[in-house]
Design goal:
The protein is about 30% helix and about 25% strand. The relative contact order is 0.17. Helix 1 packs parallel to helix 2 and helix 5 runs parallel beside helix 6. The chain has one domain: Vaccinia Virus protein VP39 (Rossmann fold, 3-Layer(aba) Sandwich). With about 200 residues, it is an alpha/beta fold. Helix 5 links the parallel strand 6 and strand 7. The model has no long low-confidence stretch (mean pLDDT about 95). A 7-stranded mixed beta sheet has the order 5-2-1-6-7-9-8, with helices on both faces. Strands 3-4 form a two-stranded antiparallel sheet. Bound molecules: S-adenosyl-L-homocysteine and magnesium ion.
Length: about 200
């Protein structure tokens, strides 16, 4: 059985384990949704935890990579590049990983951009994990599109939050500030670069 540490990606084990524990707590409130699947590393933590509490994980990605994954950029992976159409494509790798991890029953890929899918979504979610694009436009679309779908008592988790701009890009930090200042969420924990907020008002 494929384990998360065998999957390419950008998530520390303690962050993955924290996401699984939060899913165990909030999964009864509704399904789990993550933005930013890549090859499924975080999905391999979230999926089994969702199944354990009788729910599922929706994992959303256009699978064309973020800015930093494109050809010539720092995090480009030639194995995830489709030369015939000159585009990144992490979907085939994801599907293979979900099959090998035995998670096809509880992890449902959604293929598209966050902004395309969010307006059509009405199901309340137990936990939303934002780990998508790091541009301000992408981060804002994730926050605006999905934060309101978190059920009361559910969790909004944001990855790659760097309070010090010297450590990394700011948009995930900016949307974390928006959530904190909205009066709708309370910060409850930070694990690595993962910030966890809980929905406390409507
Ligand atoms: N959670 C993953 C890492 C995600 S990397 C892991 O555990 O390894 C970020 C992903 O977000 C990339 O695969 C990229 O294609 C996707 N992405 C970036 N902007 C997006 C957007 N606006 N809508 C959907 N997916 C997006
Ligand atoms: Mg990340």
């Amino acid at each position: 059985m494929l384990s998360p540490d065998e999957v390419k990606g950008f998530l520390a084990p303690e962050e993955g384990e924290a996401l699984a524990a939060l899913t165990a707590q909030a999964g009864a409130l509704g399904p789990i949704l993550e933005i930013g699947t890549y090859c499924g590393k975080s999905a391999l933590y979230l999926g089994p935890a969702a199944r354990q509490v009788g729910t599922i994980l929706y994992t959303l990605d256009h699978h064309r990579g973020s800015e930093e994954h494109q050809r010539g950029e720092a995090y480009h992976d030639p194995e995830l590049y489709d030369a015939e159409i000159d585009r990144m494509d992490s979907l085939p790798t994801l599907r293979r990983n979900l099959f090998r991890a035995g998670l096809e029953d509880c992890v449902i890929p959604l293929i598209g951009t966050s902004a395309q899918i969010a307006p059509h979504w009405s199901t309340e979610l137990g936990l939303v994990f934002i780990d998508g694009g790091h541009s301000m436009a992408a981060a804002l679309a994730d926050y605006r599109g999905w934060a309101s779908r978190v059920a009361m008592g559910g969790y909004l988790c944001i990855h790659d939050v760097f309070p010090d701009p010297a450590d990394g890009g700011r948009p995930p930090y900016e949307i974390w500030c928006m959530a904190r200042d909205s009066g709708l969420f309370e910060p409850v924990n930070r694990i690595g670069t993962l910030e966890v907020l809980q929905r406390c008002a409507r």
